[in-house]
Design brief:
Blueprint (H helix, E strand, L loop, with lengths): L7 E6 L27 E3 L7 E7 L2 H8 L7 E8 L4 H9 L2 E2 L2 E2 L4 E5 L19 E8 L6 H8 L4 E9 L2 E2 L8 E3 L2 H8 L1
Parallel strand pairs: 3-9
Antiparallel strand pairs: 1-3, 1-11, 2-3, 4-8, 4-9, 5-6, 7-8, 9-10
């Protein structure tokens, strides 16, 4: 494939959209988002209830590199969860948890101040009797709904989940549904 035809896109995937271009049930998907080149494919997934950074490309070598579990690379999330986890619970998270009969790799987790984010549409449900907090979570695996399953395993279900970084690529100030092309330096670092 000619290098000039390779495309590298960052998308801020909105809540309620599938990370694919078609759906037999006619749910919202990537084909409903403007300006995404037709020749790119998502690298990995964000579930329908999650938002944030999704990489798209037609560079098969990059896709294989990023999806190969042996090349564990960091993915960073902001998670709004029910309740406020104790240090003991966060240490369990950091050490790895048993999810679906398999232990997760060590992960990073910390409580952070509420990020300056627009309200999700539709907004998350608020319960006056149960506080919530925001966590910064970094994992190096990519199992199905892993962050959600891990926060639930320590007793703090995820209310809102936003991926903000994959390796060196950050969501930045992209708004939901917006895209941008990666620059040459970003592409070189991403391939390492």
């Amino acid at each position: 494939m000619n290098e000039k035809k390779l495309k590298y896109i960052v998308l801020h995937k909105p809540y309620g959209y599938l990370s694919q271009f078609t759906d037999k049930l006619n749910r919202k998907n990537l084909s409903h988002i403007k300006n995404i080149p037709k020749e790119v494919y998502p690298i990995g997934r964000l579930d329908m209830d999650s938002e944030g950074l999704l990489l798209l490309s037609n560079d098969k070598l990059l896709v294989d590199h990023l999806l190969n579990p042996n090349n564990s690379h960091e993915k960073e999330y902001l998670a709004q969860v029910e309740g406020i986890p104790t240090e003991e619970k966060m240490n369990k998270y950091r050490s790895g948890l048993i999810i679906e009969n398999q232990k997760t790799l060590p992960a990073q987790i910390e409580i952070i101040n509420s990020p300056n984010l627009p309200e999700r549409i539709p907004p998350i449900r608020k319960r006056m009797s149960i506080p919530d907090c925001w966590l910064k979570i970094v994992i190096t695996e990519g199992r199905n709904r892993q962050v959600r399953k891990m926060t639930a395993a320590i007793g703090h279900p995820t209310l809102r989940l936003i991926r903000v970084r994959i390796k060196n690529i950050t969501l930045g100030d992209l708004k939901a549904g917006e895209i941008r092309e990666l620059n040459k330096i970003e592409i070189i670092k991403l391939k390492k």
